[in-house]
Amino acid sequence: MLTTKNGEFVDEHGRVVNLRGINLGGSSKIPTNTTTNWLDAKTTTFVNRPFPISEASLHFERIRACGFTLIRFIVTWEAIEHEGPGIYDHEYIKYVRAILEKANEYNIQIYIDPHQDVWSRWTGGDGAPLWTLEKVGFDVTNFPFCEAAICQETFGQGHSTAERRKGKTFPKMIWPTNYFKLATATMFTLFWAGERFAPHFMVDDVDSSGKKVNIQSYLQRHYINAMAELLKHLNGLENIVGIGTMNEPSAGYINVADISKGYGQSGASSGAGSKELKYGLAPTPFQGMCLGEGHAQLVGDFSNGFMQHVLGKPDSWVTVDPMGKKAWNSDSNGCIWKQAGVWQTNPQTSQPVLLLPEYFANVDFGRECYLPFAKEYADTMRSVWKSKTQELLIFVELPPLEFSTTPFPEISSSTLPGAINATHWYDGVTLFTRSFKSYFSVNTQNHRPVFGYKKILKMHVSQLGEIKQLGNEKMDKAPTLIGETGIPYDMIESTTSKLIRTSKSITFRDTSSQQLAAMNHTMTCLEKNLLSFTLWNYTSDHSDRDGDIWNGENLSVYSEDHKCGLDKTDSYYIYDGLRAARAFVRPYAQYITGMPIVNEFDMAKGKFRLVYKLNGIKYDVPSEIFVPKLWCSKKADMKVSVSDGKYEVEDDDRWYVVKYWHSMASVEHTVEIKVI
């Protein structure tokens, strides 16, 4: 049983729980049958995502051997309801239950993550079914011609410099720019605020009174019902601790100050809310609307270099001419925002004219849009969830603060009881440049350079501390679990540290790799804030060629291509294929009988340290520290020292558990473990 108290996760004994886990998995965003027609969504299947049942035992054993006790399990709306509105894929739902039952055999807890990135696969990401786009009148086949979305599947048909050069390689990390393009921005605006900004858009999905409903109600109801359908078929699985509302929700056009100037938010003079991510072609919201109706536009083409980040200018200007193509299908009435009166076509010149540049301005997205949805969502999930022991926790999965365009909302415990702050964090410079430099970085919040590792560490520790503080100050002392964090393993001019078995011992190749240093840095920053987290990610079918099998990303901690071929009888076999494993497979206190002060591991010295103070509770159980055999293959190699009380070491097949009973004579207690 997992509950919360005073900003901490606690178990049934009242011990503070440090949750460490993994996102499973990277390829769960796309169907298993990816070779079929991209537009044939009805025959899609997500069965065997993240892996077949027959392979589950080995993967869960490996995940558990890493010390991960929690899985953020990736599902998508499309996986459940791809065939059509209200038509659920019960074969997939049955598979999900079977895979989570298997996870329970390994004492792994689960929280369900309804995942999306930039709305859907047809808008450059994953999440929603194709029929949602078709329902609002989009013709996805024309998106590349109108620059309405940039997708790996259609890359090369658009107008950007990157698409015109020889090779036409899909750029790394360009997919997030779809948040600032017509298709994604429109869908999210309709989902959150269709009743406000498109009141005319009523659809033939009647409510209880037999009347048509607004597109907002239609989209939200189908999304909520799909997740409820999944959850009610998981009843009885006591290892499920919660469910997310939506991965990294986007506001679309909501609160954009002036759609002729960009995506800057009303009232934002600096930070992520003052401008959008620009990489490749970056039309303004109004330009995107015009392109969607077939009007040629002169659009800035940006790179992630000096011109944008220093001078604030595009590398070049590109004339984007849809050549008669439109983003809207012939059966629709055309651009929704034109119908809403935001703009019109001049009858004399046939040119677009903006009428209401501030149409979407001055809306508090968190308070007015997200929270009403989240409350209805949580109420529905709890109405279908049946458990004798586990309250359903609700994970609020907001994007990293430096990439979030909207302020963090005030979420009271009365509005959203059982809420968890699951905001994401990445070292943004390492993520986008695919390079980790211990001596130089950039503060992604103010875009200033940072020199020296101590200052970089301080900056990132502070950023994570700010996220944790949001749980305390804006969510009524809700616990924080960093829902996503990790590193890109495809770093430039670097190899990944890898296990190498010699005749006598296990060794590591390239122990000074960028990946090892970057992952250790991330783990250190998390530990210094005493944070729970789920790393992004574990992809069972990762390969060097295809990465995580989605948009060229390469963040999986595991790869088949990085195995060194250890025999199943080898004591290190379970770690084979893990990348930079020593950085994240590390000792830590899982259960603490008091308030933690220090719970961290020094990788260079091979030294773990736990410090905590009494919290007024008399425990009948000890604190428990996980020590992986990757670091300490023999119990005799482990040196344990305690400030008081007593300890014992339990031996599992893949790890040790150091159990510590403190003395009541002292207020503060320390356990140190040396594993080198």
Output the strand order for the largest sheet.
Answer: 16-15-9-6-5-4-22-19
Structural class: alpha+beta
Overall body shape? globular
How large is the share of residues in beta strands?
Answer: 15-25%
State the share of residues found in helices, binned by percent: 10-25%
> How many E strands?
30
Please, what is the average pLDDT? 92
- End-to-end distance: 35 Å
Keywords:
single chain, 676 residues, alpha+beta, seven-stranded antiparallel beta sheet, 24% helix, globular
Protein described:
This protein has about 675 residues and is α+β, with helices and mostly antiparallel strands. The protein has 16 helices and 30 strands. Helix 7 crosses helix 8 and helix 14 (about 455-475) packs across helix 15 (about 515-530). The mean pLDDT is about 90.
Record the SSE blueprint.
Blueprint: E1 3-5, E2 8-10, E3 16-17, E4 20-24, H1 53-65, E5 70-76, H2 77-81, H3 90-104, E6 109-115, H4 130-135, H5 143-146, H6 161-164, H7 182-197, E7 202-203, E8 213-214, H8 215-232, E9 240-244, E10 280-281, H9 285-292, E11 297-302, H10 306-309, E12 316-320, H11 336-339, E13 343-345, E14 352-354, H12 365-384, E15 393-396, E16 419-421, H13 428-433, E17 440-443, E18 448-451, H14 453-474, E19 481-482, E20 498-501, E21 506-509, H15 514-528, E22 532-538, H16 581-584, E23 588-592, E24 595-602, E25 607-613, E26 623-628, E27 639-642, E28 646-651, E29 655-661, E30 668-674
Parallel strand pairs: 4-5, 4-22, 5-6, 6-9, 9-15, 15-16, 19-22
Antiparallel strand pairs: 1-2, 2-3, 3-23, 7-8, 10-11, 11-12, 13-14, 17-18, 20-21, 23-26, 24-25, 25-30, 26-29, 27-30, 28-29
Helix pairs in contact: 1-3, 7-8, 8-12, 14-15
